Amino acid sequence: MKIHKAGYPLLVKALVVYAGVNVPVCLTLPVARYVVLAVTTLLYLLVLNFFRFPRRQITVDDNTILAPADGRIVVIEETFESEYLKRPCLQVSVFMNIFNVHINWFAVNGTITYFKHHPGRHVAAYLPKSSSENERATIAIRTPAGEEVVMRQIAGAMAHRIVSYATEGTEARQDRHAGFIKFGSRVDLFLPLDTMICVRLSEKVTGSRTILGRFKNTINPS
User: Fold this and answer.
1) In degrees to the nearest 10, what's the CA dihedral of 143, 63, 154, 16?
2) How does pLDDT run across 28-59, given as a tens digit for each residue?
3) What is the pTM of this model?
4) Which residue has the higher pLDDT, 204 or 46?
5) What are the contacts of 127-135 at 24+ separation with CB within 8 A?
6) Which of 19-23, 122-126, 210-214 has the lowest mean pLDDT?
7) Overall domain count for the chain
8) 160-165: which pairs have CB atoms within 8 A and are 24 or more residues apart?
9) 118 & 42 share domain
10) What are the catalytic residues?
11) Residue 95 maps to a domain
């Protein structure tokens, strides 16, 4: 299993703690050694699994909007994006639980026109207020067709760090990582109002594979 680079520091620290707990127990409490070893090994494997890096064949397409993360669709609604677009748009949100892969991919191809990290709270990521109150990173992308899309990484109740690889003026591609959120989190997409949405509420999606929508000006007439 390949491990994402965002997990290396935490995994090393966890390994030190793992050794620090098990070595003294094995030396002084032989009766309890197997129970402690089993519990700590399970916990370490869960953390290791969280940072897994799946190999995926990704189809890059300027006309489609791909899921930015693994998880479940928790919001599909018209809203007002006040940070960058400053206009009504369609919001589609993907909630990631602790068992999902927490890599984030760019949902569309284009040029990154805006990036800002906001410190904030760590309330449950599935709550609507998390989009504006939690620690978050906002990325705006202008597609080759001129559409503007905002992607927002949001930390959840258990998340303690948002990692983002976006830099203003650089290229965004659907087969590249936008970042990583450590433990339970959410990604919001803010799309043009006329976007054709291809998913439903509560639907499970796969990052970089599931098509969330298509831009109207790229849809062939039937």
Assistant:
1) -100
2) 877 777 788 888 888 877 777 767 777 888 98
3) 0.79
4) 204
5) 128/75, 130/154, 130/156, 130/186, 131/93, 131/186, 131/188, 135/159, 135/162
6) 122-126
7) 2
8) 160/122, 162/117, 162/135, 162/136, 162/137, 163/6, 164/115, 164/117, 164/137, 164/139
9) no
10) 185
11) yes
